[in-house]
Amino acid sequence: MNFSGSGNKNSSSSKCGGGSHSNFGASSATSSKASFKYVYDLPYLERKELCRILDENNQWESLGGGLMCYSVSELSEFGRAIYRGGSPTDAILTAWGSQNHTILELFTLLGRLRHFRGMNVIRNFGFFLLVVFPELKQNYRAELPN
């Protein structure tokens, strides 16, 4: 099943994330990993760890359905990745990444979910400041590099 045209159909709405976050700034000049811009650019180990975290207790469903706006049938298809020896989160990231969504957009969506473990995995890819959620800086400051 091809998901490349699916998800984030309502990117202009405030409920669905991803479409309008590319204008948010982040200090990436000091990061050697700043060249990783798109979700499909995430290195294997970081992506695998993010998938492991989001696969726990089906947390990928909140991300895919609630924020990326995939339909129930699409989420069901992503969930069947387990039966093929895969990861539902990886299936979502593959489909969403094929639409050229950025790591900053993913970081922002994880922030909306208050998913600090997931944010921590991808934080080193040019997102040293939590400009999207200034109120989170207090809670997340200990995890940010100096």
How would you describe this structure to a colleague?
Helix content is 40%, strand content 0%. Residues 1-14, 19-34 and 140-146 have low confidence and may be disordered. The protein has helices at 44-55, 60-67, 72-79, 88-97, 103-112, 116-122, 137-140. With 146 residues, it is mainly alpha-helical. Helix 3 (72-79) packs across helix 4 and helix 5 runs antiparallel to helix 6 (116-122). The chain is built from seven helices and no strands.
Explain the layout of strands and helices.
Blueprint: H1 44-55, H2 60-67, H3 72-79, H4 88-97, H5 103-112, H6 116-122, H7 137-140
Helix pairs in contact: 1-6, 3-4, 5-6
H-E string: HHHHHHH
Total DSSP helices: 7
Please tell me what the overall shape is. Answer: globular
Beta-strand proportion: under 5%
